Amino acid sequence: MFVGPVLEALLTAYPDFTFKALVRDVSALDAFNAGLGPASTTVEAVKGTFEHLDLIVQQTSEADFVVNTADSDDVNIKDAFLGGFKKRYDEGRGLSGFIQTSGCAIFFDGVKEGKCSPSGKVWTVSEGVFLPNLSN
Q1: Does the pTM of the predicted model rise above 0.70?
Q2: DSSP 88-117
Q3: Share of the chain above pLDDT 90, in %
């Protein structure tokens, strides 16, 4: 399970946080949790795949922080993450943090096919990609 080292580091650094992981096979996460030991915080399984875009939007909107250790070139997943962040913001629950470990070119302006557009605009937090009034 590739995400294991990332989750283990986060659990160690933030033992009081609640963690969820999107998994195709719940037994893989059960094995991960068992390996952590009984005194450890466990990671809650959310069963699904990258084809369950509504689930990704919902889980993203509920999260204070999202870590994507998987596909960085899937436009639909990128849109689901952004949709979840926007939903959270629009509902007045503030901004979420986001870490993408496998590349970020998909988030550049004008990307339609999972490839970086050399003429695309690189957005920064201060410009608020889709979130108005971030300075307030």
Answers
A1: no
A2: HHHTT----EEEETT--GGGSTT-SSSS--
A3: 20
